[in-house]
Design brief:
By secondary structure, the chain is mainly alpha-helical. The chain is built from four helices and no strands.
Length: 89
């Protein structure tokens, strides 16, 4: 494990893809389940934490998609490609 949690997560996703799990819906669903587990660790104000997480996902999608061209502040290590088969053939 490194000090970069998103890097570690992306590495795990890459390993699953290399083993043949390239169904993006399945991968996103499993990652959503993991996010829920993190939210439930809070034990207080889970709804607020979930709202912040969903807001962050939306903001990053907008930044990465170019909706805010020239203003992206998203760190490059947070990028998980939408077309995994293009990046990990």
């Amino acid at each position: 494990m490194s000090d970069c949690l998103p890097c570690d997560i992306n590495q795990l996703v890459r390993e699953h893809v290399e083993r043949g799990t390239n169904d993006l819906v399945e991968i996103a669903s499993v990652m959503a389940e993991s996010l829920v587990d993190v939210v439930l660790m809070s034990q207080e104000d889970c709804a607020n934490l979930l709202a912040h997480a969903i807001s962050a996902v939306g903001q990053i999608v907008l930044e990465k998609s170019g909706a805010f061209e020239g203003t992206s502040s998203a760190a490059p290590w947070r990028f998980v490609p939408l077309a995994l088969n293009e990046v990990y053939p």
